[in-house]
Structures are given as C-alpha cells and as structure tokens.
Amino acid sequence: MSFPAFFTRFDRKTTLDLLVPALVALVFFLLVVLFHPFREKLQYDVDEGFNLMRSMLVTKDYSLYDEISSDQPPLFTYLLAGLQRITGYRVNPGRTLVLLFATLLVWASAQFTQFVWGWLQAVLVGFLLLVLPRFLQLSVSIMIGMPAIALAAFSMLLLALWHIKAKDYWLILSGMALALSVLTKLFTGILAPVFLLGVTAAQFSRLGDRKFSLQGLRPGLIWGASFGGVTLMLGGILVGPASLTGIIKPHLEFAALEPEALELTLNFHLRDALPFIVLAVCGLLFTILAKRWLGLYPFAWALAAYLFLDGYSPVWYHHQLLVTVPAAILAGVAVGESLLWVIGLARGSQFSWLRTVLAVSTLLMFGFGAGRSFLAALEQLSGTPRFSGVTTQAPLQKLRLYREMLQHAPDTRWVVTDMPIYAYLIERPVPPDLATFSGMRLLNGSLSEEQILETVKTYQPEQVLMVLFELPRLERYLEEHYELVYDKGDYRLFLRED
Prior knowledge:
The structure is a single chain. The chain is mainly alpha-helical. It has two domains: 3-35 and 71-379, no CATH class; 396-496, no CATH class. It has helices at residues 3-7, 15-35, 46-59, 75-87, 92-116, 119-131, 135-139, 145-165, 168-182, 191-207, 218-238, 241-257, 266-269, 274-290, 296-310, 321-346, 353-379, 396-407, 421-425, 439-444, 449-459, 472-481, and strands at residues 415-417, 463-466, 482-488, 491-496.
C-alpha cells in the first residue's frame, strides 16, 4: 500500500484533510522566517546563553553532568551541540532549530484537530497558536520548553491514530515521542498518566460488557513499556543514575525556597491568556455535546498541567505554554463549531437554544480576546520580509560591551560570567562547572560563592563579566587581580591584569 493510500483509508479523510494541517504549519514557518526579526536579536532570555554554552562545551568534549553543570535533561543540549558541529558557534541556527520544533507543534495540533473535527477547526487552531501570549517569542528562543511541548503534541497525535486505526505501532511510537519530550524537559512527564488513562479507558469501552481481563490493560502496557523503556534506556545512556538527582532535586528545592516568589505563579502568567481559557471551556462543551471523545485529550492535558503548575512556584513565563497550547486546540474547536452552527442556522438548520447561546458567546469572546492577541502578535512582526542585510539590533551599551569583549577574544581562553551569551558570541567557553551560573543554583545551594571564587582562581579567566549577581568575595578578588574596563548599568567587565 502506498503512503498516500495508507492515510486516505481513514474514515472521512481526504487528501485536502491531510494537506490543510501541513499548509497551516508551512504558513506559520514562512511567516516567522520572513517577518519575525529573531535573527537580529542579541538575546531573548538568559537561558539562551546557558543552552548554547552547555552545547559548546559538549562539542569541546567535556562531559555533560560529570563536568558540565546542568539542571536540565540532555536531549536538547546534544541536538544543539550536533548543530554547532555543522554550523559553528552561531546563535541563529539554534533559533531556527527551535522554530522547526514550533512548526512541528503547529502541525501536530492542527492534524490532531483535523482528525477529530475537520479542516476549519484545524486552521483556527493554527491561528490561535500563533497569537497565543508568548508563543511567537518562544518559537524563536533557544529554550527547551517549546521543543518538549512539540514532542508531547506529536505523541498525542500518534495516540489519536491508535484510537482511529487500533494498530499497536501507533502506541509504541506515541510512547517513544513522549519519552523524547521528557528527555528534553521533565514537565511533560505529567502527560504520561493522562495518556495511559485515555488508552485504557478506550480499550475497556471497546470490550464492552466483557468481564475485566488483561486484554483491557494491553494498550496501556504497550504504551507504558515504550515510554518507560525509551526514557530509562536513553536517560541511562545520556544522563546516568548518578546525575539524575542533579536534574530533579534543584527544581524541587528552589520551589520550596521561593514560594510565591515575585508573583511568579501560574495564574500570574495566565492573565493575558484568559480569553483562550474561556474559549477552551466552550470547546470542551462542544466536545461533550458532539461526543467527540478524543477531544478530551487536550482538556485532560490542560487540566493536569494547571493542577501541577498551580501548586508549584516559581512558575516562569515559558511554563504557561503547557496549559495554553492544549487550551488553544479546544479554543479552535469552539470557534470552528460556532461558525458552522451559525452558518447552519442561516441555512435553516434546526434551532437549539443551548448551542446558539454557546456559539454566540464563543464568537464574541473570540472577537475580543483573539483580536487583542492578534494585534500583539503583529507588533512582533516586521512590516516587510527580510531576505538579507540582517544585523544585530541591541541597545548601544550592549553592543559596546560585545565589541570590547571581542577585541580581547584573541588573548582569551576562558570567560567567567553569569550572562554566557556574551562568551558564546566571542566563541570562548566558560569553565564547565559554571556553565549554569544561575540564580536557581545559587539559591538552592548547588552553587556557592566559594565555589565560584575557587573556579576563578583555578581557571584564571582572562575576562570576567558580571551582570545579574553581586558576590562580595568575588568582587574583592576581582578588584585585586583584574582591571574594570567596562561599567555601564549592571554590566561590569573585568580583564585580568597581566
């Protein structure tokens, strides 16, 4: 059976049905590549520097976790390191890699919606993802949340294919995809029980009135074995049991140290996404009314993510996508069904007060919420496509700092900094144990000022750039042995006196 013929065997699926999600994803990719100025940005988030620097050190044959400090799973670091071996130490290839993951997320979400509902809803899901708060920025930032969520959405799509075709290999592929997601960022692990419960409930529903038997547990066992096997095997190879606690423990300790820190809670970050949450509730109601039970997967995903993150603090802005992405899928369903219902009424379909009120409420909320978000998304895009002449755009003081560091790069072997993007831009490494010079490590005790000072004495870095943290003992040492050559705002660059 040919590849196209295989897919067209799905019930009510046509070639157009399969092309629409691909076209939605392609339009998203081209829109961002042509109109988003991500290639001109010096840095979106300090995490970009951490991810790039850890990968740079991997390419220099330092061992992740054993030598390179990292509090994140390994998969994205190794992918980025592989890319750096091909392209060199540049920023934009890494951002393009994340954009490809974001495109995968748009396609998988649209294709899932296409299978469950139809092409109109799939197109609307693509649009709503585009205008989600923070979605565009996180689609081009070298951070691990977007790739992990993209792989989770792909896993959900493969799970939907099992529901449609009842073939075991879809279960195996779905489990593998979620395992890769967890090995990118741990927070998508909350979806494992959701997916297990979904396939088990579907299997018992298929068995009908038969007595309880192991046959009802079979799909869950297959999916669980695939997910657990890949996670344990790759995790054992890439992380190792000794380093596992170093990934999990710091996040739990930091949450305990900083409850409700600086209002960094989930509800704080979801304020701008409230219209999408309301639309998602409408989408859930349409799902129940239409008995499209596969549509409960995005709802269960969003609910599990909300309950998990609501009890955790601090929640960073990129965490909200774990809730808003499945919410956007349900929101697309709500808007699509509302439009179809209004069109049906205009053509003389049977009237229903419940569906009519739900449809009108949905469309009003869509016009209000999506309209504001659409304008915000437009502000992030340039007016004309950019094919050439792309240059770094940043405040003058940051460009001067970069040029100052670049001037001394030929005489520099090591840089110590809490803002590693600058070390990466001049293609110089930081000491491996300071690859993750973060506030999280300082607060949870996995990195101390004494360790930093000892590392500086050991490596004798030619340049030290401090931006985020004030460390008195380190400052005194730098005053004695280094020359302050740049001091603007929070940015202080020291050169070794010799």
